[in-house]
Amino acid sequence: MASKPSIPQGTRDFSPAEVSKRQYIIQTIKNNFEKFGFQPIETPSFENSDTLMGKYGEEGDRLIFKILNSGNFFFNKNKIELPESIEALQTNSAETIDLNQRIELNKFTGKISEKALRYDLTVPFARYVVQHQNEIEFPFKRYQIQPVWRADRPQRGRYREFYQCDADVVGSKSLWQEVELVQLYDTVFTSLGLEGVIIKINNRKILSGIAEVIGASDKLIDFTVALDKLDKIGEDGVKKEMIEKGIDEKALVKVQPLFSFTGSFSDKIAQLSDLLAESEEGMKGVEELKFICDNVATLGLATATLDLDVTLARGLNYYTGAIFEVAAPKTVSMGSIGGGGRYDDLTGIFGLKNMSGVGISFGLDRIYLVLEELQLFPETVAATSKALFINYGDAEALYASQAIQKLRKENIKVELYPDNVKVGKQFQYADKRLIPFAVIAGDQEIASNLYSLKNLVSGEQISVDFEGLKNALLA
User: Fold this and answer.
1) What is d(CA 438, CA 392) in angstroms, rounded to the nearest whole number?
2) What is the rounded distance in angstroms from the CA atom of residue 174 to the CA atom of residue 3?
3) At what angle do helices 220-227 and 230-244 cross, to 10 degrees?
4) Do the Cβ atoms of 389 and 417 come closer than 8 Å?
5) Cis bond leading into 139, ω under 30°?
6) pTM of the predicted model, to two decimals?
7) In degrees rounded to 5, what are phi and psi of residue 272?
8) pLDDT tens for residues 16-40?
9) How far apart are CA 265 and CA 262, in angstroms?
10) Which of 134, 168, 271, 466 could be joined to 359 by an S-S link, Cβ 3.0–4.6 Å?
11) What is the distance in angstroms between the CA of the first residue and the CA of the last residue of the chain?
12) What is the bridge-based pairing of β-strands 115-117 and 46-48?
């Protein structure tokens, strides 16, 4: 007996209706990317392993899908000794094998796998910029909408195969880029009808400055990781974790204002200025945020809100300036639906120094879930036809096909039922496909050069000429 077909965990099939909704989101994002001057590029779905490995930290490396080299690979114990780490993996998780075993395993993996599926779009983009630097006009504004793969634990809104929608600018340190990216977020979500999103912003220099003024520069990562949990574990929980990580209790007294960090953007900037007055690095961050905030406020946002969140610490080892994260409206329980930031040396990992960049990403799958929950997809977003022409036989089908040909030239989605079967079955097909209209073209219609148009929702039926048919289906 044949086994029941299935798909790998963390992947999905998409129905015609789901694909139409996803394409609606992608097309909206794409149109606005191009409106803001971003140009499209595409990179291969897989890269050389050495392009990806070591660029995302130890945790990221573990989540990269590796591709076995093509051809046969035999484990001949007389020629190749299997490393002890292979045996270790049979009894332990990848997290518990020691450093020597991991090095040994990586060497072995390199013998059987030289390529890997891309983990994100950023590192391939950095590789692209370095490889094509002589063909690119800088500053280079690129967008990329392609799938990525991660060997992550699947959960709601998180999959092993998913799309990223990125827009980046490289070759410019101007903070006007950050101002434009805030506007881009606002424009996209407004276009999607998703009002009330909160664009959270922080700055890596501010986090470094806070660690400096409290005397915990050597504990920057521990400090910010704990601070980032304020919403989840509260003030007492954050303080407890900081103390456990070796941050002095006296330092926590200096950082106390962060736990009651409220007010308008300007109020928060003023509080940060007082707190970071003795930190040159921190004050640079304050000035950068003030520039972005002031100009966004002058230009205005349509439906989004820009908010300074001093606990925001995403990509700390990666970002060097502004950090962005977009939260869905509070009526929806969902993680971030976008994020990004400024990086001063994106291409340095491939040998091209001093190439500053800034970029943002849209979380397609999470945005889909939010729009679905809030019922924000327009009714016109559908994979279905506008009308089904009923098939009464070859002569009638030819008459119908002539009209169909002209309607399609007007970009109206219509189709002919292919078989001359019972009319009831054809209407039933239209109902199941959610096609709103049926067009009847039998002997009487042909003799009068007319068409009978039936609204399958209301049941109303009218007789029209071709122009009337076209106008009715365009309405």
Assistant:
1) 13
2) 58
3) 150
4) yes
5) yes
6) 0.85
7) -65, -35
8) 999 999 999 999 999 999 999 999 9
9) 9
10) 168
11) 52
12) antiparallel
| pLDDT per position as a tens digit, 352-370 | 998 999 999 999 999 999 9
DSSP state of 451: E
Cα separation, 37 vs 177, in Å, equals 12
| H/E element, 232 | helix 230-244
Q: DSSP letters of 375-407?
A: T-S-TT--SS-SEEE----HHHHHHHHHHHHHH
In whole angstroms, give the CA distance from residue 152 to residue 344: 28
* Burial of residue 124, with CB atoms counted within 10 A of its CB: 0-12 exposed, 13-18 middle, 19 or more buried: buried
Give the Cβ contact number of residue 329 at 10 Å.
16
Cα–Cα distance measured from residue 285 to residue 357, given in angstroms and rounded to the nearest whole number? 16
Which string of b and e fits 210-241 if b means at least 16 CB within 10 Å?
bbbbbebeebbebbbbbbbebeeeeeeebbeb
The helix (run of H) or strand (run of E) holding residue 6 is none
DSSP 2: P
Least Cα distance to 380 among 473, 286, 287, 275 occurs for 473
CB hemisphere CA count around 173 (13 angstroms): 8
Tens-digit pLDDT profile for residues 68-104: 887 555 555 444 455 554 555 545 555 555 656 656 6
Closest by CA position to 144, among listed 42, 32, 34: 42
**158 pairs with which residues across the strands?**
155
Give dist(CA 43, CA 203) in Å, integer.
30
Enumerate residues 6+ apart whose C-beta is below 8 A from 387: 412, 414, 415, 435, 436, 437, 438, 439, 453, 473
Looking only at Cα atoms, what is the longest distance across the chain?
Answer: 94
At 236-253, the pLDDT tens digits run 898 888 888 888 888 888
Find where tokens 């007294």 sit: 253
The pair of structure tokens assigned to 137 is 């006009």
> By the 8 A CB rule, do 255 and 274 touch?
no
Contact 437, 455 (CB under 8 A): yes
